Amino acid sequence: MLIPENKLIEIIKHKSLKLKPLPTEERVKLVNPTTIKSIIFDIYGTLLISASGDIGTVKSSSKSEIFMDSLNKSGIKIINHDSGKRGLEYFYDEIELSHSASKREGIEFPEVLITEIWKKVISKLKNDGMIELETTDDISELAAVYFECSNNPVWPMPGLVELLDILRKENIVYGIISNAQFYTPLLFPALTGLSLEELGFDSGLIQFSYRKKEAKPSLSMFNSVISELKIKYNINPSDTLYVGNDMLNDIYSAKAAGMKTALFAGDARSLRLRKSNPGISGVKPDFTVTKLMQITAFLKKAGEITK
Questions:
Q1: What is the mean pLDDT of the chain?
Q2: N- to C-terminal Cα distance for the chain?
Q3: Predicted structure pTM score
């Protein structure tokens, strides 16, 4: 990371908006107590309320102004006020080009490095004479953080810190498998005051898509975590619960990896039931929760925790 973490964390703090989850019509399902020795979480829409329901990649006509503002706040001088519109077009074009190149290499579900996308976009806008750089430093990280915070504000899901505190005290091992970018882990110290490690996540059980350049529903990240769980803790996938809000990326993938699954249906923005997707027809979560703290009720029922 080229920009100091504390500077990026301060930007996230300043740009964040307090969000509340929107209720869904799903009902809690906590049946058939079973052994759970570890829990793996998704982030966007599960641990964090997400305005877009996922890492911010959805197109919107208003985003050109957000894009230009992100350039400006990053220390870029705007020469042409169409730079936002053109920059956004370049942005999505570069993502598509990156995905296509990865697919040609055999990666079915590719992930981009968002800083590389921003570098290319900034370079193109500069060559077009639409912007001027006021520094020779790499400011792609700044631009990416400003854009993501404006485009996809997030906030801790109610019960996040409390749940993790209970899991840690009860010696339940927990980690993360999430589609993410470099700024994703910075969201936690920015919004909770605690890093992922301070929140009790095992760093060996944290897998982010940008690091592998491969995203869910690929099983690549799942397989890495499964291997670590077995080697470090002698925990099998069948004794691991995966919690996520997306029936394809989370429930289908985790089941295919051999894990037990809990659908997190706590926010209407992010709940992805994928009912029109024939590829997951018949796939059902083992459990359904509408609040994070309901996971403790299940663990009590299974005899895994006492408090």
A1: 93
A2: 40
A3: 0.94
